[in-house]
Structure formats: C-alpha cells, structure tokens
Amino acid sequence: MKWSLIRRKLERVDRALAKAMEKGEIPGAVVLARMPREGETVEYEAVVGNAVVRPERVAMRRDTIFDLASLTKPLATTGALLLLVRDGLVDLDDPVAKHLPAFAEREKEGVTVRHLLSHSSGLKPLRFFHEEMLTRERKKGERWLGEAIAKPWVIERICKSKPVHEPGDAAVYGDLDFIVLGALVEAVSGEPLDEFCRECLFEPLGLADTGFVRLGRNGPLEPDAARRARTAATEQCDWRERILWGEVHDPNASVMGGVAGHAGLFGTADDVMREAQAWLDAWHGRESVLPSEGVKRFFERQDLPPGSDWALGWDTPTEGQSSSGSHFGRPSVGHLGFTGTSVWMDLERELVVVVLTNRIHPIVKRARFELRPKIHDLIVEAFTAE
Q1: What's this model's pTM, rounded to 2 decimal places?
Q2: d(CA 37, CA 189)
Q3: Domain containing 231: what range?
Q4: pLDDT, tens digit (0-9, with 9 covering 90-100), for 283-329
Q5: pLDDT category, 227, cuts 50, 70, 90?
Q6: Helix (H, G, I), strand (E, B) or coil at 43
Q7: Closest Cα to residue 118, out of 307, 280, 372, 364?
Q8: 337 forms bridges with which residues in the sheet?
Q9: How far is 330 from 317, CA to CA, in rounded Å?
Q10: H/E run at residue 352
C-alpha cells in the first residue's frame, strides 16, 4: 500500500479545513475517517481551530463535545426504535396510533412507524413551537419555556395537526416525524427517551460522552463546568439572549426541555465513530450490540414514494447532490446535523467519515455548507489512491 501517496493526498483535507477557517465558514472542526484496505486500516484525524470564540476562546480538542443536532435522529431515536423492533415491542408497519392513540386525529390513522422513519408520513416538516410559546408568554403572562407542560403540549399539537399529504405519497425531510417517534419510544419503553437511550444504547456501545442535556427555563439544569469547557459553542441566540454553550441549539428541542427525538444529542467524534462502526459491523453480520437483520432492514431504501432516497432513519446518497460527495457507493448511509455535523458510511468499502464542526458559532451561516462533500471526496481519493 502506498502510504506516502495516501499521506500526501490527505494533506489536501488539511488544506480544505484551513481554508474554511480562513474564510470564516467554521471556527473549528474534528474530522475522523477510517477504512480497511489490504489487511490494514487507513485512518485520518484532524483537530483544528476553536471550539469557542465567544465569550472566550477555547481551542478545539479531539474529545470536544458537539451539539450533534439532527444526528440525534439516527444515532438516538432510530437506534432506540431498532431495539424496540428487535424486542417485538414495535413493528415497522404498526399504525403510530397503536402506541400514541391521540395521533389518530385528523385522518392520520394510516400513518405507520415506517412512514415516520422514512419522512413519508405527511406531517408538516417544520413548525416553530418556541415562537407560539413566546407569544403565549407575552400575551398571558404564563410560564411555558422550560416548564414541564411544554413537551406534552408540543406533542399534543402535532397529534392534532392535519397532514399535508397522504402517507407514502411524498418524502419530505422534517423534524415533526422524529418528535413523534421520540414520544413513541417513551410510550412503549415507559422511560424518558434520554434514559432509555443511555441504558439500552449508549452504555452498551461504550459511548462515554454521548447523551442529552436536560434544560430548565434558564439553561442546563445541572451545569457541569468541566463538561462545558470541553463543549463546542453554537449560536448567539436572539430569543434566549445568550451564546448557546452546553445547551441544545434547536429551538423546539430547547422548549421541550432538551430531550427530543429530532435533536438534543451531544457527543464527541470518537463516540459517533464508535456507534457508526457498530451499525456497520451489524450490517456485515459481525458481532455487534445492534441486531444484524434489523440493521439490514433499516439501511434499505424504502421507496416511499418510489425513488425516495430515504432508508429508515438514515439518508442515502442522492446522485449529484449528496453531502457525502461524489465517491460514496450506492449502498451508503449517513445523516447531517444543522450545527455542522455529519456521519457517512460507505457500506461496501467499510469507510466511515465523521465530520463535526461548529459552523453556526457565533452566528448562523445561511450559505450552503460545501465543506462536507469536499472533505468526503478528498478522503475517498486519498484512501483509495493507487
């Protein structure tokens, strides 16, 4: 194997990260990649820039903890559903209303767990519940944000909502599907989502730094100075009037107390890599905490509707416009997070790439985040160099 050529080509990844920081696209990043080749393992690691630039400057570390944003969907909620399906407590074609009876309102009786996992349920993709709560607080003087009533109120509002299309007629990525799935996990398991995931998923996988951060009205319920010092900050939030540092960025997850099915998970690059490797091992039939047959089912494109790229809780490459770049094979799965995070797995090559950045710190960048596909392309070109 031409190690010197591989190392030279990997220097292009270093330069791409440096350029992104120079242009102000990201304050910093942790990137990990791994692929077996010719009986050995090719690896890449980059730890660059800063985890925090305001209110103080904190250098990025390999064990920096990131707000994983929508990586919560596959790494927590989808993983939890995988285990419940394995144990026979949930079937993918169960009507959601079997487990959450209130969900049947407004002609949603035919929506199944499979529809939610593949974003084909017909639910409206996004709704800013924090804005409704802020308005209610201002008008009526009631306390809602950070209160125990907020989370069930959000779920009730979704259950009472009318779908925008018939289940299976379209695949529209959004958060409401997974807010409902988080509630379903809690209803079936009888435990809060964060506790179920910790006990049944994260601890068995050996994820030491992965979990949700519960919130009160004014931030984390139990601030941990040492953990906060290892955490990448996100946005200067207008309505929370502070830099978000150690608390979830996503507004709906925030008003729900920090624990939700669509967002709220925090973790390190090493933990994301470890969980991704467990999914990959299970897909190949090797020993894993996760069930092999279940993982194979969850990684299959669902074709809901025909042509949709969504598997169950996982995305697959969209030809010509995937964040995985242009070199990941068709049997690949991955997901993105709004804060600047991603994980992609090329199943046949057994390539795993974890890209964690804090691109929305200290302000949200609205431009398309082109760094991720570029990094993926450069890593594949280096790892496969002849």
Answers
A1: 0.96
A2: 41
A3: 3-73+208-383
A4: 999 999 999 999 999 999 999 999 999 999 999 998 878 999 999 99
A5: confident
A6: strand
A7: 307
A8: 341
A9: 7
A10: strand 351-357
